[in-house]
UniProtKB/TrEMBL annotation:
Enzyme active site: S60 (acyl-ester intermediate), K63 (proton acceptor), S115
Identification of the protein by name: D-alanyl-D-alanine carboxypeptidase
Family affiliation: Belongs to the peptidase S11 family.
PANTHER family: D-ALANYL-D-ALANINE CARBOXYPEPTIDASE, D-ALANYL-D-ALANINE ENDOPEPTIDASE
Length: 324
């Protein structure tokens, strides 16, 4: 009897241990951010999504659109004088002073690598005469590229009422942004030396820390404000394909990098057939994603259309005054 009891106890121990390990593994694989997505650039398929159409503040991911619109109106070697308004815009270092002159190229690097808000405002004013008029061009641009759930109120991404995007829209934005050689070069540059016309130098480092650890990282754009929290959109090479990832509303930078790496891993698992594409619309519902034509939807999928459910999630989030 004692031998049987010991054997039974050992089996129970192994069972509990396996449950613990399995639970720990699943928690490790969870995406912490309220909204995240991984998209196959070649097919446009969502390989993994968590509330992909939830509207949230964009923070400095905005500057990808700022850079695109600016480069459509300005030569990279054009010299731009920093205005009083641009100089006084709340921003991270390096501080650009009123009257200083920089090339459009250097302002692009400052905006995309270091997220300098004053550089974004300077580009806007040089392109359209005022930031307000420039924002109109930004909103026209995102509509043209199919980012229908995105709207801007400024060129920098600083918080304000009526400004939002989605992780799914961000993948569209970065896909178009990378078609501009200067943008592609800037988001893939680790360090850069900016020099004003009068010789003032700024040594800047890219805020995308994954450039140092991920060899297959093509580039990306970070963002942060207190209301938006930590945001990131990136392009990566995975199994010979390009994968876009986007995250909005992460709690800290460590989670931001971890979640991005997890999105890349999830995408690779789908591409190699280890798992099926999945979209999580809330903590309680998971919708399998199929891209096969004429395939019948499951009963659950029939009642949970992706776009309608995503809008419902957004509506509930606003009602509860919290982020899902």
């Amino acid at each position: 009897m004692k031998i049987k009891s010991k054997k039974l106890g050992f089996i129970i121990f192994i069972f509990i241990f396996c449950l613990f390990v399995s639970n720990s593994y699943s928690q490790t694989n969870e995406i912490n951010a309220p909204s995240a997505v991984a998209v196959d650039a070649q097919t446009g398929r969502i390989l993994y999504g968590k509330n992909p159409h939830l509207k949230l503040p964009p923070a400095s991911t905005t500057k990808l659109v700022t850079a695109m619109v600016a480069l459509e109106h300005l030569d990279p070697e054009k010299k731009v004088t920093i205005s009083k308004k641009a100089a006084k815009t709340q921003s991270v270092s390096p501080r650009l002073m009123e009257g200083e002159v920089y090339t459009v190229r250097d302002l692009i690097y400052l905006a995309l690598m270091r997220s300098v808000n004053s550089a974004a405002v300077a580009l806007a004013e040089a392109s359209a005469g005022s930031e307000q008029d420039f924002v109109k061009l930004m909103n026209i641009k995102v509509q043209k590229i199919g980012a229908k759930d995105t709207k801007f109120i400024n060129a920098s991404g600083l918080p304000g009422k009526g400004q939002y995007t989605t992780v799914y829209d961000l993948t569209k934005i970065i896909s178009h942004a990378l078609a501009y050689p200067l943008i592609k070069e800037a988001v893939n540059t680790r360090v850069y030396l900016v020099r004003s016309q009068d010789g003032k130098e700024h040594f800047i480092q890219n805020t995308n820390h994954l450039l140092w650890s991920e060899d297959n990282m093509i580039g990306g754009k970070t963002g942060y404000t207190r209301s938006a929290k930590h945001c990131f959109v990136s392009a990566n090479r995975v199994n010979g394909r390009v994968i876009y990832t986007a995250i909005l509303g992460d709690s800290n930078r460590e989670n931001l990098w971890r979640d991005t790496q997890q999105l890349i891993a999830q995408a690779e698992d789908v591409l190699t057939g280890k798992q099926e594409p999945v979209v999580k619309l809330s903590s309680e519902s998971v919708v399998p994603v199929s891209y096969k034509s004429k395939q019948k939807l499951t009963k659950k999928a029939k009642t949970t259309k992706l776009k309608k459910t995503s809008k419902k999630v957004t509506k509930n989030a606003k009602a509860n005054k919290r982020t899902i």
